[in-house]
Amino acid sequence: xxxxxxxxxxxxxxxxxxxxxxxxxxxxxxxxxxILVVLAAGIPGNLFTIxxxxxxxxxxxxxxxxxxxxxxxxxFTCLSGYLFAxxxxxxVGQALAASHKYLCLVSLGLTVATLQSSIANILAxxxxxxxxxxxxxxxxNWVTDRNVxxxxxxxxxxxxxxxxxxxxxxxxxxxxxxxxxxxMYSKTFFQxxxxxxxxxxxxxxxxxxxxxxxTSIRKQRSIAPMAVVVSEEQQTEEGNAKSKNQFKVTKxxxxxxxxxxxxxxxxxxxNTLIFSMPTAWEKNGVPKWILIAFEYSKAFLGFxxxxxxxxxxxxxxxxxxxxxxxxxxxxxxxxx
Length: 336
Hints:
Order of helices and strands: HHHHHHHHHHHHHHHH
CATH class: Mainly Alpha
Domain G-protein coupled receptors family 1 profile: 45-312
Family: Belongs to the G-protein coupled receptor 1 family.
Structural class: mainly alpha
CATH architecture: Up-down Bundle
Distance between the termini: 71 Å
Radius of gyration: 23 Å
Shape: globular
Helix content: over 70%
Strand content: under 5%
Low-confidence stretches: 1-10, 14-19, 224-234
Mean pLDDT: 83
CATH superfamily: Rhodopsin 7-helix transmembrane proteins
GO cellular component, one term: plasma membrane
Oligomer: single chain
CATH topology: Rhopdopsin 7-helix transmembrane proteins
Subcellular location: Cell membrane
Keywords: Cell membrane, G-protein coupled receptor, Glycoprotein, Membrane, Receptor, Transducer, Transmembrane, Transmembrane helix
């Protein structure tokens, strides 16, 4: 057997001593507290959203299936984030990750996979609304339960496949190295399968939502004049109801996407800034305040899973009523 593979790893206490002097800044304590609090706050709402979808028959339509899938991804983000936070932001966790290869790869891989799923799911929701706005006559033919289920399975198949690649050998793990992507993944893997696809997904998502918002505002302004021209015989009750419902869903999901970008923007900007590595930083190192802001921006990502269930409850009557039932809150007759 190869001597390298048979040689036992250093004890955790020795690795901890080696890492302690330069890897664990004092401000990490604040970062981990912030991250753990945010992750804990995101669990109940997403769990209720998933339960609401399966409990209420009326909620089971293609768009709400995408919402449920997004909540599943957000829930996994909150749960997997605990392990990653402990392994990165505590001294003992860093020592464990530095001495246990697959513990590090699994925790980091889960975090990367759940972040990827969040972007893929928000892109799927945006595409759903884009079709509803720009291809309204074909919407119910294209966006079916079957097609959406295929999309959901495809998203998770791709995400899980990428997650498994480092476990089967495509990694750069070394003992005594912090468990972060720059140390665990090759540049080709991280940029080719994570950074570039996700940036393209965010770009497409942004373009779709700008187009949706522009057209929705224009259509809303034209409703009043059209009401005078178009007679009641030309607009059936069923058609009006569907159109009104689609417009409400579009506004709700535009709000969800807006909050998504608000949560991700600090992380994206700081990540881009750090990777651009100005000449002064190459000589003197990245400024401390930039590093602190970057680490806290990771906690800010968790606000998206927290706020989404509140948006669904606020903007969707069926979600709100199902939340109430799950919480045991009595619904009065005058409740909208």
